[in-house]
Design goal:
By secondary structure, the protein is mainly β. It folds into two domains: 147 residues, Glucose Permease (Domain IIA); 134 residues, Jelly Rolls (Sandwich). The protein is built from three helices and 19 strands. The strands form three sheets. Strands 1, 2, 3, 4, 5, 6, 7, 8 and 9 form a nine-stranded antiparallel β-sheet that branches. Strands 11, 12, 14, 15, 16 and 18 form a six-stranded antiparallel β-sheet that branches. It has a four-stranded antiparallel β-sheet with strand order 10-19-13-17, with no helix packed on it. Bound molecules: zinc ion. Zinc ion (ZN) binds next to loops.
């Protein structure tokens, strides 16, 4: 579990009080990290030892917190493991063949949803913070098989962490037999060995801001949404700094008689910071809630997992479907890593 210092849970109150309209957009080209992660299927030559045979859950991706990083926390992690930074919804492959011996489908506690794999070579692996599992308890799985989709679940929320998958490994027994803290460094058991020495331990950054906009949105035009005074971008990366995260935008609106649309746009910048290309994500529509009394607010929620590399910025835009729509309040929440 990524407890004690991995991050604090995000509040879910805002989510619950809004009409839930969620657009998870695995965007085009440069916006999306997961699409760029290739899958290599290795020939399943099993060896006597696990060392050097296991598959990483999502291929070669950034490690946001190493096993040693978990151990070095204060207090130390209760279940040291390797955190692979991937956007939510990334396929997770079984490290090796075995049987699913434990499965949790609720977001509660520090683990969130998880799967446990008892491997044929006598070891035990847990995959934490899942969005969903695709294999039932008791299933036999083979090396490289899709077993789950990554998430950020924990502490009763889908976004208890920044998005990642945590992998813990115990050698020769279960965590109950060996102790949850007596895991070993999974990276030492993957095919090809560790990518690099255990890294420092960046933890996801949580950011939340609320801006009182109180602007009438022109009908039929895409209008950029400010998220603070004179600030419009939700996330940005540069030629040297990449950003992996999850951003959610919440709007409180008035005078909605028909509805409005929301979208996120990725803009590529040149070296002097001027936009040279833009990639709008598909919009989604928030209709008026007709059951509401006249003049009561309509809420819109939009969220997006993302990976930005190169000089890129993300913006949110709104298009009013009737005249007179007022955006009263804009709240932006995100969990992200810079790498
Ligand atoms: Zn972790």
């Amino acid at each position: 579990m990524c407890d004690a210092g991995d991050s604090e849970p995000s509040s879910t109150e805002a989510t619950q009080s809004f009409v839930s309209r969620r657009g998870v957009l695995l965007g085009t080209g440069f916006v999306l990290g997961a699409a760029a992660v290739g899958w290599e299927f290795f020939s399943p030559t099993l060896r006597a030892s696990a060392e050097g045979t296991y598959l990483r859950p999502c291929g070669i991706v950034p490690i946001s917190s190493s096993w040693m990083g978990h151990k070095n926390r204060n207090p130390p992690s209760g279940e040291p493991g390797t955190d692979y930074a991937v956007v939510r919804g990334t396929p997770i492959r079984a490290a090796t063949s075995g049987v699913i011996v434990d499965r949790k489908d609720s977001t509660t506690t520090a683990t969130g949803r998880y799967l446990a794999l008892r491997t044929d070579d006598g070891n035990y692996i847990r995959y934490l913070h899942l969005q969903s599992s695709t294999v039932p308890l008791g299933a036999r799985v083979s090396r490289g098989q899709l077993i789950a989709y990554s998430g950020a679940s924990g502490f009763g929320s889908e976004t208890g962490y920044g998005p990642h998958v945590h992998v813990s490994l115990w050698i020769g027994g279960t965590p109950l037999q060996l102790g949850f803290t007596n895991s070993v460094d999974f990276e030492n058991y993957v095919e090809g060995g560790p990518i690099k020495p255990p890294s420092e331990d960046p933890v996801p950054i949580h950011q939340s801001s609320t801006y009182q906009w109180n602007a009438v949105v022109p009908r039929g035009l895409w209008t950029r949404i400010p998220v603070a005074a004179d600030l419009y971008w939700l996330a940005h990366s540069s030629a040297t700094v990449k950003e992996t995260g999850d951003v959610a935008i919440y709007l409180t609106t008035a005078k909605v008689t028909k509805g409005f649309q929301l979208r996120i746009v990725a803009e590529t910048l040149n070296s002097s910071g001027a936009p040279i290309a833009s990639a709008p994500q598909p919009p989604f529509e928030v209709p008026v809630t007709r059951a509401e009394a006249p003049n009561s607010p309509t809420y819109g929620q939009y969220s997006l997992p993302y990976f930005l590399s190169g000089p890129v910025r993300l913006f949110a835009e709104i298009r009013a479907l009737n005249t007179g729509i007022i955006v009263q309040e804009v709240t932006v929440k995100k969990n992200y890593w810079l790498s």
